[in-house]
Amino acid sequence: MGDVLDRARELAADVLAPAADEVDATATIPEGHFRALADAGFYGLAVVDDVPFDDFLGAVETLAGACLTTTFTWMQHHGVARALASTDRADLRERHLAAAVRGETRCGVAFAGAIPQPPKLLATRVDGGWRLDGVAPLVTGWGIVDLLQISARDAATVDAGDEEAQVVALLVPAHAATGVTVHPLDLAAANGSRTVRLDVDGWMVPDDAVVSLRSRAAFLAGQHVSARVNGCLALGVVGRCAALVSDAGEPAAAAALTEALDAARKDLDAGLADATAMPAARAAASALAVRAAASLTVAVGSRAIVGRHPARRLAREAAFTLVAAGRPEIRAKLLGLLPG
Ligand SMILES: Cc1cc2nc3c(=O)[nH]c(=O)nc-3n(C[C@H](O)[C@H](O)[C@H](O)COP(=O)(O)OP(=O)(O)OC[C@H]3O[C@@H](n4cnc5c(N)ncnc54)[C@H](O)[C@@H]3O)c2cc1C
What we know:
By secondary structure, the chain is of the alpha+beta class. The protein folds into 3 domains: 4-102, Butyryl-Coa Dehydrogenase, subunit A, domain 1 (Orthogonal Bundle); 107-215, Beta Barrel (Butyryl-CoA Dehydrogenase, subunit A, domain 2); 222-337, Butyryl-CoA Dehydrogenase, subunit A, domain 3. The chain has helices at 4-26, 31-39, 53-66, 68-86, 90-102, 216-221, 223-247, 251-273, 278-300, 310-323, 328-337, and strands spanning 107-110, 121-126, 129-139, 147-154, 166-173, 180-184, 196-206, 210-215. A hairpin with a 2-residue loop joins strand 2 and strand 3. It is globular and about 65 Å long. The mean pLDDT is 96. Bound molecules: flavin-adenine dinucleotide.
């Protein structure tokens, strides 16, 4: 079947890239994209032993450059697959992990309501489980994924410091439930990702759905690794822009973008070893994506504005990487960097 990067390049060139503008225009990801990712073994990429992390990152970047919408939606799966692989809940692992690795069970994640201070989504301990109330503001893949790992802040420790404040993660079926109202959101880019807001009022979730209970500090500590993975979205956009700038007959500009891309990737890799460097590296990658998309707009001229040239989509996708999977430190770095 070839190595992971070869498979990613093949899938990107044969399946994702040719359909990217259609996916963007129709806000619909063909089911065949998810089947192709599953057939390539890509739903298990973050948990199988024989895939080096560098290859995982390379695959995500390659796929993101081909179709950001599909890649962003598929990426949500990996946090849940990893949680299932590492949970001390053997019954959950046995029930779901193998199917998740094969891509027969697709997963999404909803933690954006649990992390802010004060949190937007609370979990109150009740007999036999948890009662959820509040808002999960951004949940990608609704109607596409089968299982959702939803995180909420333990109401009993909501005012405690980060070491004591608890985040409970629960694995629930990703469909309508009593106490949940689903609001589809209209996105400027990756609108086919089916991102929704869940308004939650008394959603009862039993104890046997608990994947983990950990501190807010432990959750935040894991963010620099996810910032590296999410940086692949920005790098993918840059790579695609560089290729199209070259196609537009501007080899010098394309070479400059490729050089900047390599440097941005190196800085993100360095951020894995030094968590304090990650926000700047992550911000720089998105700022480069914006510059790359602007360079492409200039290189192709009015075709970027009139008609359906991919430059139009890539400009919105570059902006998407500025905020999707954002966090306060990255935002602060970007606001320092972008105004010039
Ligand atoms: C299109 C799209 C799809 C998304 N899909 C998902 C999804 O499927 N699942 C999911 O969980 N999230 C999802 N997110 C949310 C994402 O993970 C970030 O939380 C979000 O992009 C941050 O948005 P914001 O910059 O508007 O901050 P806001 O949401 O406005 O942040 C509100 C407050 O929370 C704090 N805060 C927010 N995030 C963090 C953090 N990570 N660490 C520390 N503090 C924080 C901020 O400092 C601020 O005080 C999605 C976002 C977008 C744009």
